[in-house]
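User: Second chain of the day. Same drill as before.
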Amino acid sequence: MSAPRPTRRFGLALPILLAVAALAGGRIVSKRLLDSRLPWRERQPALAPKVEAVAAAADDATTFQVTAATGLVEAQRDGRWTAIKNGDTLTRADVVRTAAGARAVLRLSAGTEIELRERVEIGLDRLPSGPTLDLRRGKVLARVSGADALAITSHQTRTANEGPAHFVVLSDPAGRVSVATLAGTARFAAGGKAVSLTAGTQSSSEAGGAPADPERIPEEVFLEVVWPAGEQRHATEHTEVHGRAAPSSVVTVNGSPATVGADGHFTTVVPLHEGKNAVAVEVEDLSGRTRQASSTMVRHGPQPALTPEPTELWKK
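Assistant: Same format as last time:
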């Protein structure tokens, strides 16, 4: 018996399979040739986002650099405050604060830096338009050069440079924000109004309200102190010191801050010990100039009680 002959269907299938394989190979070669002519970023769509993410992370890691730090300067990370020093880098997620008597300088770019005075707290961020700082309390000085853009927000206000500028922003506990421009021009906006502050002018906003019209920075630093009586003879161990200064001033009495009202008045309690007590009042205006006044108060202790001593007036 002879072997069965292959069917016609099997004979046609083999050429079809060979044709399909040839077409698939042609497509692979064509795709490789096309990919070789495309830019690298288009040829590697899966790698490009990773490269951009690494670049963004590197930018965040070195966005802010500490170039000077004196006293206790701290950054809040993972819910804890950690001391930072000159040379450290900060990210947009950090919150920075300075203690009493401390100062710090943060560099945002080659030509832009901010100085944090004592008792300052700020949040850091960087937007596409440039670095942004959230000033929560205290006083900062910004120096911006070149084409950099810097914005400082505080209590629903926003201050930004218009070209190279040197400006100051002060935020007090009552929600008052004061701005002064020392060089260049800064734009101060709040409550639906914006004013341009040229060199030598200042303005302020109360609790997020519209800023006042710009005015010239006074030529002299204003300070007026009403001293209590020079000699205190009472049982209490403190006295009050009253005075007046410009509302946008920072006032300290023996190193402790005194709250300055919207009208410029301030009152602070000074502890007294028995004997002589030196009391020094210092005011710093918005532009950084200072003025001092001092006095000495004497606190006497309670008078000794007199004990009657019986004596015989008449002798027999």
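DSSP finds three helices and 23 strands in the chain.

User: Great, on to the next one.
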